Amino acid sequence: MKKLSELYDVSDDRIIKGIKINSKDIEPGDIFVCTMGVTADRHDFIDEAINNGASAIIVSKDIPAKSVPLIKVKDTNLELRKLCAKFYDYPYEKAYMIGVTGTNGKTTVAELIYMLLGDDTAYIGTNGRKYKGKHFSMRNTTPDVDRLYKYFKEFLDNGCSTICMEASSEAFFRHRLDDIKYDIAILTNVTKDHLNVHKTIENYVSCKKELFKQVKDTGFSILNSNDLYFEEFKSIAKGNIVTYGYNEDDTLMIKDYDLKRNETIITFKYQDQDYKVISPLLGSFNVENLAAAIITLLCKGLTFNDIITRVKNIKQIEGRMEIMPFTDEYTVILDYAHTEDALANILTFLNTVKEGRIITVTGSAGGREREKRPFMGKVVLENSDYVVFTMDDPRNEDPNKIIDDLIGESKMTNYERIINREEAIYKALSLAKPKDIILIAGKGRDDYMAIGDKYLPYNDYDVIKKYYEH
Prior knowledge:
Elements: E1 2-3, H1 4-7, E2 15-16, E3 18-20, E4 30-33, H2 46-51, E5 56-59, E6 70-72, H3 76-87, E7 96-101, H4 106-117, E8 121-125, E9 128-131, E10 134-136, H5 145-157, E11 162-166, H6 169-173, E12 182-187, H7 195-198, H8 201-213, E13 215-224, H9 230-236, E14 240-245, E15 252-259, E16 264-270, E17 273-279, H10 284-299, H11 304-312, E18 322-323, E19 331-335, H12 340-353, E20 358-362, H13 373-383, E21 386-389, H14 399-407, E22 415-417, H15 421-431, E23 437-441, E24 448-451, E25 454-457, H16 460-469
Parallel strand pairs: 3-4, 4-5, 5-6, 7-11, 7-12, 8-11, 12-13, 13-14, 14-15, 19-23, 20-21, 20-23, 21-22
Antiparallel strand pairs: 1-2, 8-9, 9-10, 15-16, 16-17, 18-19, 24-25
Helix pairs in contact: 3-5, 4-10, 12-13, 13-14, 15-16
């Protein structure tokens, strides 16, 4: 908490307890900052904020006098970062900051780093925020600044000296991360995604580059040498540039790997020495994800032998190639894959280890990137024995039309459509025979279904669990 007079040049010592940009979340003692969103001007919600107990309002427009102080600034969006940094005592300057960006693999890499580094590390990203055995869900991969800086301070106050975060392209587009200097920045890969926000792949890549421009001079830019945009990132990256991949001159070389149904055996080469690592993570894509996490730990000063021991003990990552524990007759996998590339990666691996059929449940989110749907559908239909198409956050689109887009011009008939996602999952599970693999893709551990403008409670994991409890 701070006095208003400590935050602004005013003779008002009222106590400020927090900073918010959502008027509905305001509690007594909060400052309400009237930021300008893409579709919303929060100046329109000043009265609601005051009714909910706001102690002061930050504005950038001329507003008639209210019952609480109005503090006018030039740009409320820029002011939000400055105010939160001051209120929360610049927490990102006091922590060892690790940022992970990329189209696929961000969550897996960030969670791996969190698990491998241990108890003084916090994680924040798609799977929520985690520290000291606590887990809290969140709506956004990278939250707005009013919550992000608050969470950073929360981590520090609970004894976490390292923060590993997923740094989304949209967060850079919205300037949520502009103030942070990173000790380590990591690139997983770049494929087409989120073009509903960025419009072009060039804009998308440009936003991801920002992470590497914000690396400290003493820090590390960790790049995937096999990524299509590697040279572009290398040309702008700050700090010490280190690489991982399949090339002899990579800092950490993936020399060989053996994919098995229940583990992966990998040979890495580092500083002219080979190291054999047994990983519980499955699939070739997780070989690269693990490589990114391992080189991060090496940059942080851990020894390779210590890392090998730690890797053996890592757990499944929620919603990422997560094998459900409810049956041994066949395999049920929950995964967040929602792009052509991610679906191709996981289905390619499953086809190398399958003993029965692959039955896939999937859909595509509404309100974004219609053009990618036929390619997603083609990958799923050609690499699955049977597909159940269903809804996946349809928002304001008709789920049937989304499925039409997924099917596209395909002449394949190995599918059905069941709009209700719970019913679709039940149907796939009811079809399962011994040794089959049931892949439930798209939402991972998301705890909502976006329908219209509402976020309704929903969770794939809970649906699967309920099926086996009947």
